[in-house]
Amino acid sequence: MKNGWQEVPLGEVLTERKETPTSESLENGEVGIVSKIGFKEGRIEVRVDGKTKTGMILARPGDLVISGINATKGAIAIYPEVAQKPIAATIHYGAYIPNKERVDIKYLWWFLRSATFREIVQNHIPGGIKTELKSKRFLAVPIPLPSLKEQQSILAQIESLAARVNEAQRLREEADLESSRAFPSTLTKAFEKLEKEFQLCEIQEICTIIRGGSPRPAGDMRFYDGDFPFTKVADITKDENKFMFDTVHTLTELGTQSSRLAKTGTILLTVSGATLGVPKISKIDAYFNDGIVAFPNLSDEVFSEYFYYFLKSRTKWFRDYNARGQGLPNLNTDMLRPMKFPLPPLDEQRRIVAYLDSVQARLAAVREVQSATGEELDALLPSILDKAFKGEL
């Protein structure tokens, strides 16, 4: 082997624990039961009850616990030595006692959750990584094993580098969160300033407000797949774009919907459910359901995209207002009509829209960079492990 590492079967460094818990210890909660082992962190999660209808195995502190079904996805954990009691798991798990004179359990934990191990399993077990790793197959898998001293040296390097990667991922997640908050904050501040500088009017003074309707009978699929575009809430909330480019629904019959047509350029607002308060500008003529209101006949004194941004600045307020109520969140037209709306001159409205568009574009560019950085960070730790277990660190 490279670097003189000896290839040994796992059975030389691990011994299967063949104990089982008593029914009484499970029922009275003295012994907890493994719910799952997380793929990403490789940590044991415990059930809240001790009910079971299948055979069980027992693991003790310091054991390596693996999910035979999901081991190659990362479901491998070390049951902490500081634990005071044993733990149980179904027969689809296995518990193994490490030979501390041959292997460092933490080194082995990293190795067994690496692409290097998955490749070995793929090559040495019939059915590869899709096969459940029962003890007979698992313990027969050959792995390259450095000396104990070298294992501990490699482990120190892995954990140092992994800590740096985790910190970088934490900082990126914080940056993502700040980026997601930046535009709503900009909108709120912009319209708070406008409300102080310009006259306020009510929404009902600058447009009509119409609530949509749904096909009758409600949701009857016979009304769909026809010739008339029909907008649902999901068509508006599915992305952050300012404009709604198309809809995926069509009606075969109009019925009472003929008075609920939103022409191209009409602003729509979701008013029902958890995603209420989301505005869009329609790019097509379309009918719309009763989870949506439209604002047609917009005054010539109002630039439609400016009004769109005003509604978008109120999304959180709409939701907070409804959080005080009971049942399904819902905005009604009576609440929307008297809402105060700052009305600067048209040139000022266009300037504000251009500014907000530029802020949103810059933030979108930042999110693209953050996404690419995130992908690179996600790939970094597997790359480190690959080099570590090839002796290239």
Shape: elongated
Average pLDDT works out at: 87
Structural class: alpha+beta
Number of helices: 11
Largest beta-sheet details = 5 strands, mixed
In what order do the strands lie side by side in the largest sheet? 12-20-17-18-14
How big a fraction of the residues is strand? 15-25%
Distance between the termini: 16 Å
Rg calculated over all Cα atoms? 30 Å
Q: What percent of the residues sit in helical stretches (DSSP H or I)?
A: 25-40%
> Count of DSSP E strands?
21
Low-confidence stretches: none
Structure description:
- The chain is α+β, with helices and mostly antiparallel strands and 393 residues long.
- The chain has eleven helices and 21 strands.
- It has helices at residues 23-27, 105-112, 115-124, 135-138, 148-197, 203-206, 233-237, 304-313, 315-323, 333-336, 346-388; strands at residues 6-9, 14-16, 32-37, 44-46, 56-59, 64-67, 76-78, 87-90, 93-98, 142-145, 200-202, 210-211, 224-231, 243-244, 249-251, 261-262, 267-270, 279-282, 286-288, 292-295, 340-342.
- The strands form six sheets. Strands 12-20-17-18-14 form a five-stranded mixed beta sheet. Strands 2-9-6-7 form a four-stranded antiparallel beta sheet, covered by helices on one side. It has a four-stranded mixed beta sheet with strand order 4-3-8-5, with no helix packed on it.
- Strand 17 (267-270) and strand 18 form a beta hairpin.
- The radius of gyration is 30 Å and the shape is elongated.
- The chain starts with 5 loop residues before the first strand and ends in a 5-residue tail after the last helix.
